[in-house]
Amino acid sequence: MNDQVNIILSDVLKPAGGPSGYLYNLRLSLTANNISNIHLISFPNSINTPTKNKSKIKIKIENLKKYFYSADYRIKKIEKGNLNLFSSFFKTFENELKGADINHFHLTKDLYYFKKMYPESNTINILTSHSPQPPYLEVYDILISEGYSQEKAEKIATFQKEIDQFAFINSDFIVFPCEQAVEPYADFLKENNISKEKLKYVITSSEKMKYSKNNDEFRKEYSIPENAIILSYVGRKNHIKGFDVFNDLASRFKHDDRFYFISAGIGPINPIEMKNFIDIGWTNDPGSIINASDYVVVPNRDTYFDLGVIQTMSLGKTIITTPTGGNKWFIDKDLDFIFFNIDELDSLVETIKTRHPSNAKKNEHFFNEILDNNFFAINYSKFYTSILENYTYL
To answer: In 10 A of CB 46, how many CB atoms?
Structure first.
C-alpha cells in the first residue's frame, strides 16, 4: 500500500460552482499544504496534468469535452457505447488509476465508465455527487427548462438514473459534506438500499471570496443610494434554487426604496421589473455584489451544501436562507443567519424591515476557524488515511 489517492473529474477545474469549483479549491489547498500523495486528474488545464501528455491528448479531450455538453450528447448520443469516448480520458492516466489505493470520483458517470472499463480493479472507489438532488432529477429539470419534450427528457433522465444507481451501488463509500446534505438523496438511497455505513462526511472549504469593487464603487456604478439596504441573490435562476422566491420577496418592497434587490446569474426564471430591482445577469465578479450587500438571500427549496453560503461567510455578510439540506448544518451554530420558510414570507419581510443590518463578524470568524480553504486538503488527507487504515480488502 502506497497511500496513493486519485481525485477524478472529466471536466476542467475552475473557480465556479459544482465539482469544478470544489476541486479547484481543493487543488489550491493541496498545493498550499504540500500534500503530494493526492493527485487530481481532470481535463488538460489542470496543473496536475503532466505536460508530456497535454499535446498527445489535447485533440481527443477537447472533442470529448464538446461531446459532453453539446445538444447532440443530450439528445442523440447518450448510450452505453460512450465507453470508447471515456477510454480516451482514462487510458491517458491508466497507470495512475490502476496503481492507486483510492480513486475518488466526483461525477457518477466517471465512476460508471471507469468500472465498465476496469471491472477487475481492486482500488477503493469513492463517490461524491455535487447535485442538489440525484443527478438524473437535475438533468430532467434542466432539459425541461430548456424546452426539450417530456419524452426526450425522460429518455435521457432514465439513462442518467441507470448511471447514478450503478455508481452509488458500486462505490465503496459515498462522501457528503455533512449529514444534513444527505436529505435531498434520502429517497434515492433508500430505493437503492444504500446503507448508512457507506456514507462518510468531509466538510466543504473554500478560498475567501475576492472582489474587484468596494462597497462605494459598486453603489456608484449602479446608482444605489449610500444608505439603501441591499439584498442580493447570486446563482442559477431556477425553481430549486428559489429564484422565484427572491422575486416574490422583492415584490413586497416595490414601493419602499430604502431597500434594493440585486440579482446575478442565468436561468429559466426571469427577474421581476421594478425600480429598486437591478439584474446584472451573468457575472465573473460575484464577490463585488456580495461585498456590497447587507443581506445575501439563498432561498433554496432543496440544497446539498451551497458553496455560495461559505463564500458569503468569508466576507462577513448576513445570510437569509431556508432550513433545508446542508443549510441545516449551520442552525445550531452561533452565526449571523436568518432562517425562513418559503411559505412564510410575511414574517421574513417584517424581520428585514425591523432589523438593523450589521457586519456579520461571527460568520467571518467561523469561516476563518473552520471553513477556510487551508483546512480542505488537511481534512481530506485525514479522511483518506482513516479509510485506508480501516478498509478490509476482499
So the answer is: 20
CA-based Rg of the chain, rounded to a whole angstrom? Answer: 22
| Count: domains in the chain | 2
pLDDT tens by residue, 25-59: 999 999 999 999 999 999 875 334 433 444 444 44
User: Do 146 and 237 belong to one domain?
Assistant: no
My answer on whether 327 and 379 are in the same domain is no
Helix and strand numbers, DSSP H then E, in the chain: 16, 12
Amino acid occupying residue 184: P
Whether residue 210 lies inside any domain: the answer is no
Average pLDDT score over the chain: 88
363 and 222 in one domain? yes
- The pLDDT of residue 302 is 85
Are 113 and 167 spatial neighbours (Cβ–Cβ below 8 Å)?
no
Q: For the chain, how are helix, strand and coil distributed in percent, rounded to 5? A: 50, 15, 40
Residue 194 reports pLDDT greater than 80: yes
- Asked whether the beta carbons of 74 and 54 are under 8 A apart, the reply is no
DSSP state of 319: E
Q: Concatenate the DSSP letters of all residues of 92-136 into one string.
A: GGHHHHHH-SEEEESSHHHHHHHHHH-TT--SEEEE---SSS-HH
Proportion of the chain above pLDDT 70, given as a percent: 88
Q: Encode pLDDT of 229-288 as tens digits.
A: 999 999 999 998 999 999 999 999 999 999 999 999 999 899 999 999 999 999 999 999
- For cell 425553481, name the residue: 239
Q: At what angle do helices 150-170 and 135-145 cross, to 10 degrees?
A: 160
Which whole-number Å values give the CA distances from 128 to 19, 49, 254, 277, 289, in the listed order? 9, 21, 42, 37, 30
Q: What's the CA gap between 354 and 226, in Å, rounded?
A: 19
What is the rounded CA–CA span in Å between residue 135 and residue 34?
33
- What predicted TM-score, i.e. pTM, was given to this entire model? 0.86
**Is residue 307 pLDDT above 80, yes or no?**
yes
Q: 355 φ, ψ to 5°? A: -90, 135
Q: Judge contact between 234 and 308, C-beta under 8 A.
A: yes
Contact between 22 and 204 under an 8 Å Cβ cutoff? The reply is yes
